[in-house]
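Sample intake sheet
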Amino acid sequence: MEIRQYLLLVKRWAWLLILGAVLGGAAAYGLSSLQPVVYQTYTRVMVSSSPEIQNQSYNYYLDSQLVKTYAQIFNSEPIMKQLSEKLGYPVSSGQIQVRQVPDANLLQLVVTDNDPQRAADIANAVVEVFIDYNTGLQDERYKSTEESLKAQIAQIEGQISLLQDEMSHVSESTLESERQQIEQQSRQIEQMLASVEDEIISLETQIETFIPTPAVTNTPAPSWIIPTSTPVPVPTPTLSSAAQLRYKELQIRRDQLDDMRALFQQAYGNLLVMQQSTTGDPALRQSQIQTTLALYQQIYSNLLSSYENVRLARLRSTPNVVQIEPARVPGGPIQPQPMRNGVLGAISGLIMMGAVAFLTEYLDDTLKTPEDVTHHLHLPVLGLIGQMRKEKSKGGSGQGLYVADNPLSVITEGFRTLRTNLEFAAIDQPIRILQITSAGPGEGKTTVAANLAAIIAQGDRRVLLVDADLRKPAIHQYLGISNRRGLVDILRDPELLDEVVADLNESGMKVITSGKQPPNPAELMASERMERVLSEFRELADLVIVDSPPGIISDPIALSAKVDGVLVVIEPGRTRIGPAQVLMEQLNRAGARVVGVVLNPVSRRNSHYYTKYEYYSSYYSSKGYYGSNGKNSNGKIKHSQSQEQSQREP
């Protein structure tokens, strides 16, 4: 399809496109106006792993995974609950959207709310709540260990204080009270030793989770393998940097507990020795207390070191979350935006109606333009006839001859053009008898036949108009004359020819109506008598125009072989391609000479298809043909395009 055809298609369906744009824009504008007012702001945070992990391999991968994890936690239920408590009003997770910035360890938090200030407050507060929540999660991992170490340090401090007091009050009178204190210390050491044992067992259980369990198999070992009591070593798994750091922390803590367990066992042994000793030698007693005190001080030092290591491990393992761009109070709402949505709705409506128009044109299988006729029927278009207004003839019955009543109209000029084109088509092979037919009924063949005969008669030629439609005659109704006798009577008795012919003095042409309807019209059209009658018609006029039935029956096919030429009437936008092609095939098979096609009527709203018709319309509407009072040279009032209605044959 050429660009010009696309433009013509747009011009034809402009009303639908405009309607779709108006309805789409109005609907979008109305719906947008009903939406609640929403404000939007955003903030950005940077996420990085702990300093220990940053020195490990796969750091970029770990940071990316950490960013994805935090993106899922930011608008989780615990965060929303703490955020609502902090702000004093409820905040839903739907108000916060978390987006990961591509190729960066950044998270963008987009917050919406009905109040601009609250939107900014929510965006800034959610970062603070998340940092506190994340810190609490990390602290929970080391909380029990730190509390246990604090309790042990306090107990050891008490034991050291007691031993120091014993050293300064060693005497025989205090041996009994000292034994009681030693028993109490032994029980405390025993409890602390049991606590250390439990913690060692827990750490070993956690360490085992980092090493996969070997798969159990029932396959027997080959016979050549010698059994051995040495266990098969379990290979060390490949761990991520974060897992490796945690694995090392657990191992270091277990080693510290092993050393502390040995010190507790040694101190416990010394206390048992002191408890069983019954000697009253103060020097020996003081030496034992001093040895035990040294063990306690060493235990105390190890506990302090372990506590500091655990605290530093907690600080190092906490990821860093920093707000790099605080949220600002939005200056205007993001919705509703009636103007923007109205424009988008208008565009959507325009596209939808354009699709409907294109689909309608694509599925339309009618002949609409001269190009369609040339492409599908391979015939020239000899004339373009516009729409005629329905009116009564001067006698008060029938429609009358339009070209006689409106000699300077655009439609009359179209018939003159058709007359000229027929003369050029008959240069090599003169046409004395011209048959006019159509692919289907009601396509204006009778209108074309009558007005074409009248316009040719105005050129000082003898014209005979014959109504050969013996099934549904219409010439007599169109011209308002009697149909008591006609062509059927001539076929029965050729001597009646002079009596049947009607002379229309106003138009300068003669007319033969169909007469009474016969029982066998198809046989009459194909008979030799019809051929003889046509030969007699040649003697009466220079041109015989025969109005025949439409091509849906066999009558025009039989008649087409006896005439000099056939003119086919096509109604644009109504005549379908299939029936028109079938008619052409039947006419060609009958040996008929089809001289061309007439498009009738060319609708005013579709006149943009035909540039030539537009030229005539504008040219003959000028003051050169119509005066300022709206009358032509004959005093007839010109009619606007809106006054003309489509005329179809009766």
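Comment: The first strand starts at residue 39 and ends at 48. The radius of gyration is 55 Å.
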